[in-house]
Design goal:
The chain has 98 residues and is mainly alpha-helical. 79% of the residues lie in helices and 0% in strands. The chain contains 4 helices and no strands.
């Protein structure tokens, strides 16, 4: 049983942490840029275009970006807890294996 935990490939290694952080930062930047583009596109419509399909589509897109962006703090919290748990497991695993 001792060899099973050491050779297991489940979970992630601490060396993968920069990749995970980079992916999270790219997601945040993409959401921010996409939201700015949709907002500028919505502002390009005149007051007479309030009920056109393009105006309604930009409103729906802006709402979708805002909804997804509201989940980013929760996603960051999950990533932080995953890092904390992995540090604790890596610290305690050698003691358990003895």
């Amino acid at each position: 049983m001792k060899g099973d935990l050491r050779t297991s490939k489940k979970g992630f290694a601490m060396t993968e942490l920069p990749k995970i952080v980079l992916i999270f930062v790219v997601i945040v930047v993409m959401i921010a840029i996409g939201s700015l583009i949709v907002n500028e596109l919505r502002d390009s419509f005149d007051q007479s275009d309030n009920y056109t399909a393009g105006y309604n589509a930009t409103l729906a897109g802006e709402d979708a970006f805002n909804t997804f962006a509201s989940y980013l703090p929760l996603l960051a919290l999950v990533l932080i807890f995953a890092v904390i748990i992995s540090v604790v497991v890596v610290a305690l695993l050698p003691r358990v294996m003895q």
